[in-house]
Structures are given as C-alpha cells and as structure tokens.
Design brief:
The complex is a heterodimer of chains A (358) and B (378). By secondary structure, chain A is mainly α. Chain A is 70% helix and 1% strand. Chain A has a two-stranded antiparallel sheet. In chain A, helix 6 packs antiparallel against helix 7 and helix 12 crosses helix 14. Chain B folds into two domains: 49 residues, no CATH class; 318 residues, Cytochrome-c3 Hydrogenase, chain B (Orthogonal Bundle). In chain B, 48% of the residues lie in helices and 12% in strands. In chain B, strands 1-2-3 form a three-stranded antiparallel β-sheet. In chain B, helix 6 runs antiparallel to helix 7. Classes of the chains: A mainly alpha (358), B mainly alpha (378). At the A-B interface, helix 7, helix 11 and helix 15 of A face helix 1, helix 5, helix 6, helix 8 and helix 15 of B.
C-alpha cells in the first residue's frame, strides 16, 4: 500500500544514490521547508473555509457558496485581496516591533510543526524532549502578541495584549499539567514513544477517569491558549474592536489570522497525539477482523481525522458560547482548573505506579 | 490649531491620575450606531463614562414643525426605527385626541396587533444584538429567523420593512392585506415552537448568566429619579407600562400581564424582554381572530388643524415611554413639537450603573439598556 512512510524512505534512498550525504540532507531540508510552507497555506485555506461552513451550519445559513463549487475558493479570493491591500503602519507606532510581531507569531506556529507525527514514521524532527519542546515553544507566541499590542500604540491593542498575556500565561499551566498526565503514563517525552504506547488502545480509553479529566482540561486550556471563543478576550470585538491586531491590515493581519488557525491545528494535533493515539488506528480488544479492517485505513487519514474532529469541537464552542469576562477567565483558571489539574496529576501518578490502567 | 503631534500626544497620554481615556465610538462594534462614549479606565475597571451625543441628530423636531399633521408622522418612523409603528401610533393618537376624530374599531385592533408585532421584532433584534455584544454570535441568526417573518408581514401590510408609514390620523392608510391573518397565525405558531431554541442557547447558559447576573444593577429609586421607563424600569420593580396605566387603541380589552422583575440587573432586564415577547403573542392571539369588519379609517377633514393649545400623548414603545408634546397655534403645522424618547433617559443611567465594573460588564449593561441611537439624538 502506498503510504507516506514509503515515500519518505524512497526519496531518502534515491537522494543518497545521487548526492553526497551532506548534499542529500540539505536538499531534504529544503523539501521539508517547502512542504511546511505549503501545508501552512493549505491548512489556512481549509480551516478558514471549514470555520465559515461550520459557523454557517450552526447559524442556519449557507456560508460561502459563490466562489467556486460550494465556495471552496472563497478563502483563496480573500487571501488575494489581503495580499493586494496596503499594509498600513500607524504613524506613532514602534515601526520595527510593529512589523516584526506578525512574523514572531507565525514563526512560533511554524516551529511547533516540527515534532508532530503526521503519519507512521512521517515526522520532521523526533526530538527526545518532544512534549517539553511543544510546551516551551508554544508559550513564546504571547511575546508576539504583546509586541503587537504594545507597538501599535493603540489603547485597544494594549488592553487586548495585556489580557492575552495574562490569559496565555495562566492557561499554559493547565495545558502543561494535562500533557504531563500522559507523560507520566508513557514514561517518555518523545512523541513517537507516546504514539507507540497507544498501540493497543488510546490513552483516552486506557487511562480511566484521570485521563478523561486531563483531556477535558486540555481542550479548555488550549481553547483559551489559542484565544478562541469563549476565551477570545484578546480580540473581543464588541469590547476592544479587534484587540491586539486592531491596527494591522493587509498581509500583516492575514499572518495573525493564519497563525491563529495554524495554532488551532497544532494544539488539536497534539491533543490527538496524546489522548487519541495520533496516527494509530482504532483497535478494539480481540476483534481481529475489525482491527484488521481498521489497519487498512492509512495512518495519515487517522491522524487528520482525529485532529479535524478536535478542531470541529473547538469551532463548535466558538459558535455556541458567549465570551467570559476577564476576571471570570482568570478565576476559572486559578481557582478551578489549576487545583483540579494538580490533583489529577497526583491521581494519574498513583494510577501509573500501581499499574491500574489497561 | 490642532496639528499632528498634538493628536498623537492626545491619544497616547494618560489621564491626570494615570487612567486610560478610551473613545468608544462613534464607530465601535458594541455601540450599535454612532454613540460616542468617552470611557475613563483604570486598567480594566471603568471609572467614568461620558456619552457624547449628536452624531445622528437630524433635527426631527424642527422638521416636524414645518410639516402638516398628516405629513409629520412619517418622520417619526426615523426616530426609533425599531418601533416605527408605535411612534406613528403615538402621533396619530395625539392628532385624533386633539381633533376628536373617531377611529373605527377595525383600525384600533389592527394598530394594536401591528404595535405588538413591532415590539416582538424589536425585542428579537435586541436579543441577537445583545448576545453578540457578549460574544455569542449564533442567537442573532436564530432571532432574525423569526423577525424576518414579521418584516414580511409588515411588507405585505404597508410596503416597508423598517420605516413604516401606515398609521394615519383617523385610522390606517389602507386596509390590511388579505393574507394578514393567516401570516400572523403562521408567525405565532413558528414563534412558539422556535422561541425555546434561542432561549435555551442564551437563558440557561452558565457563561451568559455569570456575565449578566448582578451586573449593572439599577435600583427602583434610581430608575425613577433618572426617568427610566420600559423594560429597564420594570426590571427594577417599577410598574410603568403605559398599556396598563393609560390604555390606548385596543389595549383596554385584552388580557396581558405587566412583567415586573425586582433584581434590577442585566439578567432581569433580559428576562423582562423575553417574557414581554410572550405577552405580546398573547395579545395578538386574542385579537387576530376578532378583527372587526368595517372602515379602516374614520371620517376626517381634508386639512387637519389642531386647536390652539397644548397636547400630550404617551405610548409604550419597545424601549419605554414615548411622549409626544405639541404646542399648537391653530395652524396646519405644529408650533412646537417635542418628543420624550425612552432611550435618552435610559442612556443617562449608564454612567451610574456601569461605574466600577469591568469593560466586559459595560457591554452587558449597555446591551440590556437596549439603546437605539437615532431615538436618543432624533
């Protein structure tokens, strides 16, 4: 069967026969970078359209349906418009930081792609501290947002950035603890080990109640971390017009917009990897026929299916809930989520030591 | 002279005590129109709100003074554009009272039905807009689904969907559309089925409740002293429904409850409006099968002239008490006309009840005051 694993292997072998190992590595790097950028663009287009379609279904309307069949070229057209727009820089803005901020946010999103296992043996960088790398790099995105809010020299932007700073720093903790539960169960920080440990069942099913709690905490925390409704205080449009990106226009705004969607994809991909078995197919105990049939579905399809299911969940939240107030948001984290996640981590440690999971 | 550097300095400097002065509006997503609020902030906490008005002042009162008693009514549709039928009714009632014009029963009943439909449409739009202020987008579309049916009925009846001109001194401009009754009944059926949908989405929502309960509390005493009327005052426990106190048109022969809540917070204001929609449905149900046959307009003179003197008429719009005050010199046009608009008094209370709360609370408070800016500025 044609799988992504074979493609990478064949490419590697072919390159080694033609070039020296160093040259082959360089060419591979270039290919990976190009693939990453392409993935970014495609994901941006797909996710924006998906969001608009999901929103439309929830809101009893049709959504984009004019550009191309079913409106599939709508985002492409929108992007074209944004590229052609003038990128204004306010007169009183800190021009260097103002122009740098979207790239910082974008770069963080790009760095996070590295350790994600898209399919069986299809991963850019299987670093041995994978989960730690993800947690530490994802907390960098707040710097870009603070930079944007401060450099814009706009009061709405400043308020939005400060809100965002408080929010991301707080919710990072819950997300971190939720991720740690899986690390405790697996005993490894490496993404490939975590996926491999779910060969005979996903952690969500194997890990009893503590993992289910951790999963719920993770979903809440990453929704807040990606600044999505009901935690979209940083860009609460009815309060702060557009929050930290009020002053941005054209492609610089598009970069923020794109980074938001890429971040959603990444956190959902990590969630799928940790809790839903990554690219592992669904196996049920001793149902050999069923398990065999599930193995026929390519691993990349499993991975994307799980990720997009989580993305759909997060979109569903956005179009259902009103926004929280800033003090309620911080109360929720520090008074409820953080104690629960600490206790949950303790619980999962006991479960792991006693071997009470399947 | 106000040069570029001054402007930059003005927008970047902090206030005297280090507070942040933010101009919300005249272009701001939550002010729903060209309301300009100068908000003084200490971090996220509001220290002072100063509304600046006049961005959509069209001197409607002055315009009315140069129009005849038949003509001036259409201008009032542009004041509170969400309750244009009710504004028109107020003016028509005043002229009828001043000239002792007999209004046929048919016209009275149809006016009442249209007024209540307008009230429902206005409250539906309000639910959507307020939910949007709080960050929930979906209720807006659900509410608009039913509101669309009302606007369709309005379109059938008088050709306009928003700024109606149907109610004239003495009755109605034309008879109702043949489909009027069937369409209104279809609307009632649909409304009763679907109203629970967006109520479920909003009323029971934990986040919505925590955003609105105890937010922007207005006491009954303050409501009276600031001159608040309508759902805003009724949510604070003040009985002020003009339809009950001074019934006009067919309100004296229908059964309905005046909704009064005592909490005075944003959630109470929300509940009052939702329950009011159900009462409006109750009124329409009582009248829709009993529209009397007969003339739709009473006998009037060709040229209307009000006697010398002062005239006042008040009605209950979707936002509160609308008063029309006319001083007549006996000519074909009013000598002086003054509208007492509910929105203006309701806005004046904003600084009092939102002071000390967070920016997010300001949106909940302002949303539940149900401000329509053209009604405030006129």
């Amino acid at each position: 069967m044609l799988s992504l694993e074979n493609i990478t292997k064949t490419t590697q072998e072919w390159l080694l026969t033609k070039f020296s190992p160093q040259m082959a590595l360089t060419i591979e790097c270039v290919i990976v970078i190009l693939l990453c950028i392409t993935l970014f663009a495609v994901l941006g287009l797909v996710l924006v359209l998906l969001e608009r379609k999901v929103a439309a279904r929830i809101q009893i309307r049709l959504g984009p349906n004019r550009v191309g069949p079913g409106g599939i070229f709508q985002t492409a057209a929108d992007t074209l418009k944004l590229i052609m727009k003038e990128g204004l820089t306010p007169d009183s803005a800190d021009k260097f930081l103002f122009n740098l901020a979207p790239f910082v946010v974008m770069m963080v999103a790009m760095l996070l792609l590295a350790p994600i296992a898209f399919a069986k043996n299809f991963q850019i960088w299987d670093i041995n501290i994978g989960v730690l790398y993800i947690s530490s790099v994802s907390s960098l995105s707040v710097i870009g947002i603070l930079m944007a809010g401060w450099a814009s020299n706009n009061k709405y932007s400043l308020l939005g950035a400060m809100r965002s700073g408080a929010q991301i720093v707080s919710y990072e903790l819950s997300a971190g603890f939720a991720v740690l539960t899986i690390v405790v169960l697996t005993g490894s920080l490496r993404i490939s080990d975590i996926v491999a440990s779910q060969q005979n069942g996903w952690w969500l099913f194997k890990g009893h109640i503590p993992v289910i709690i951790a999963f719920i905490l993770y979903i809440i925390a990453v929704t807040a971390e990606t600044n999505r409704a009901p935690f979209d205080l940083a860009e609460a449009e009815s309060e702060l017009t557009a929050g930290f990106h009020t002053e941005y226009s054209g492609m610089k705004f598009a970069l923020f917009f794109l980074a938001e969607y890429i971040n959603i994809f990444i956190v959902c991909a990590i969630g799928a990897t940790l809790f839903l078995g990554g690219w592992m197919p669904l196996h049920v105990g001793s149902w050999v026929g069923f398990n065999h049939f599930m193995d026929y579905i390519p691993s990349s399809v499993w991975f994307m299916g799980k990720t997009f299911f989580l993305i759909f969940l997060i979109m569903w939240f956005r179009w259902t809930f009103p926004r929280l107030r800033v003090d309620q948001l911080l109360n929720l984290e520090w008074k409820y989520l953080l104690p629960i996640s600490l206790f949950n981590l303790l619980l999962v440690t006991v479960v792991a030591i006693m071997g009470w999971y399947f | 002279m106000y040069n570029q550097t001054d402007i930059i300095k003005d927008t970047t400097d902090l206030g005297p005590d280090g507070e942040l002065v933010v101009n919300m509006g005249p272009q701001h997503p939550a002010t729903h129109g060209v309301l300009h609020l100068v908000v003084t902030l200490n971090g996220e906490t509001i220290k002072k709100i100063e509304p600046h008005l006049g961005y959509i002042h069209r001197s409607i009162e002055k315009m009315c003074e140069s129009l005849t008693y038949r003509q001036f009514i259409y201008v009032t549709s542009r004041m509170d554009y969400l309750s244009s039928h009710i504004n028109n009714t107020a003016c028509a009632l005043l002229v009828e009272k001043g000239m002792q014009i007999e209004v046929p029963e048919r016209a009275k009943v149809v006016r009442t039905i249209l007024n209540e439909l307008t009230r429902i449409a206005s409250h539906e739009l309000w639910i959507g807009a307020m939910a949007m202020d709080l960050g929930a987008f979906t209720p807006f579309f659900y509410a608009f689904r039913e509101r669309e049916m009302i606007t369709d009925i309005m379109e059938d009846t008088c050709g306009a969907r928003l700024t109606m001109n149907y109610i004239v001194p003495g009755g109605l401009m034309y008879d109702i559309h043949p489909d009027f009754q069937t369409k209104v009944k279809a609307f009632i059926k649909q409304f009763k089925e679907k109203v629970t949908e967006y109520e479920d989405l909003v009323t029971g929502n934990v986040i919505f409740q925590s955003r609105t309960k105890g937010v922007g509390v207005l006491t009954a005493k303050d409501a009276i002293s600031y001159g608040c009327t309508g759902p805003v005052a009724r949510a604070s426990g003040v009985s002020c429904d003009i339809r009950k106190i001074a019934p006009y048109d067919a309100y004296d022969r229908v059964q309905f409850d005046e909704i009064i809540e005592t909490a005075g917070d944003s959630f109470a204001r929300y509940i009052v409006r939702v329950k009011e929609m159900n009462q409006s449905i109750r009124i329409i149900e009582q009248l829709i099968d009993n529209i009397p046959e007969g003339d739709f307009v009473g006998k009037t003179k060709n040229v209307l002239k009000l006697n010398k003197g002062e005239f006042y008429q008040r009605v209950e719009t979707a936002r509160g008490e609308l008063g029309v005050y006319i001083v007549s010199e006996g000519a074909t046009t009013p000598y002086r006309i003054k509208f007492r608009s509910p929105g203006f008094s309701n806005l004046s209370v904003l600084d009092h009840i939102a002071k000390g709360s967070k920016i997010g609370d300001l949106m909940a408070t302002m949303g539940t005051l149900d401000l329509v800016i053209p009604d405030i500025d006129r």
